[in-house]
Every structure is written in C-alpha cells, then in structure tokens.
Design brief:
By secondary structure, the protein is mainly beta. The protein is built from no helices and 18 strands.
Length: about 280
Amino acid sequence: MKNWPNPFIEQRADPFILRHQGAYYFIASVPEYDRLEIRRAADIDGLRSAEPVVVWRKPNSGPMSNLIWAPELHHIDGKWYIYFAAAHTQALDELGMFQHRMYAIECSDADPLTGKWVEKGQIKTPFDTFCLDATTFHHQGKQWYLWAQKSPEIAGNSNIYLAELANPWTIKGEPLMLSKPEFDWECRGFLVNEGPAVITRGNRLFISYSASATDENYCMGLLWIDKDAEMTDTENWHKSPTPVFTTSNENRQYGPGHNSFTQTPDGEDVLVYHARNYTGN
C-alpha cells in the first residue's frame, strides 16, 4: 500500500478523482468559488503538478452566478458531465441556509479539457430547497443519482437521497431518502448528511458521507446494501451507528470529509478527502 503525501493538493475542497481510459482527472471546489477547472495526469501523483484547465466560469448573474461548490466529473454513455452546486446569491434564505441548487454541464467531445461544454440546466427534485454534493454511479443496469438536500419536513440542513436517472440531468421517479442526521456525531454544529461517495467491494455497495459542521467536528459515516438487493427498498439499507473517519489530533488532520474514491492501476482503492490542518471555521 502506497503512503501518499499529505496534504496532496492544497487549497482545494470536495476533491474528486476520476480514472478513465488510463488517465486520471481531478476536479474540486476552488477558493474563489467562481469556476470549474480540471487537471489530468497519467497517474495519481501527477495530478499534484498538473496544470489546471478552466472549462467553465460562472456568469455575472442568474441561478449559477454564485458560490460554485463540489463539482464532480463523470463519463456517461460516451459524453462528459460535470455536476456542481451553485446559488443565485450569497445571501442566506429565511431559514438561514445557503440557496444552492444542483446543475449539470455536458461535453460531447473526446477531450474534456479542450471540448465545448454546454449547460444542461438545473437538476430538479420534488422539492425546491437547498441541495448540493451530487454524484452518479452505474449499478444493476441503471444510472443512479445520489445527493444531499434539505427536506421541508425534517429538521436539519441536509439528508442523503437516491434516485434513478432518466438522462444524466433528469431524475426518474420518486427520490428515496437513505439517511438523515440522527446520531450525535452527525449533529455537531449543524445537522448534516452530505458529500456521498460510492464504492463496491465484495458483495456490498457502500456509500460514505460526511456529517456535522465543516470544522473539526466534520467526519464520515457509512451506509451499505447487498449489491444484488433492491436499491429502492429502504429496508435493504444499513447505517453505521458510529463514524468511520474522524479528526486526528496526532496527524493534525481536522474534519476529514467530502471524499471520493478512485483506484490505482493495480486495482488498489484510494480514498480522497479534504481536511484542515487547524481547528475552527
């Protein structure tokens, strides 16, 4: 097992690494929250020094004009997609929450760094509330959409939801709530479940997610299901009552979370996450 240098890349949050056709792609939130940029390299280590290429910038006004958060790059049916959260304003709403919604852009060209990106609009869900941190995965012959959203009927900031996709920017059917903040470690500072990521190992499909405020209390939880079980039956899903990744004072890594998974060329799984080297907000 390789000992990766940490920090691996500085000043980037919500890191996502995609392995595709022998290359690695990195995308993340940037400190200015104003653009989407991609790095590409032949191996994971190469991403550290790879030149970022800006593929989209936020407009000056409109629904995608503020606070570009948590992008992910995916390749679906021969096309590239970036999912990201954006808001029309930096102001908070009447509940004291940011006003993000989820959006998608599409690139039909072979190279996502030089190709043309087209805005596909908002990914709408049954309720029009704060949402973010979407990912997608293929399982049981279907493309699934997994994200965090505020429920009008449940206390807290966000829960984890799952839905099938009709196409890469349109959900199909009624979303299924997989998890809401309920344990103490999910409710420190804020009641949060967000940042889901998917990995399949053995006979199970796992979803990691992040919980609590984004300070030293931020941590990761775990959901799982037997990989052949019906995905839309809540009875088939399981949730760890304890966090699986938390602050390490010894290593000066505080609030680990919002992770993604990738693999080395040898098939070793790699967990990519963000953390701080200081405490507080």
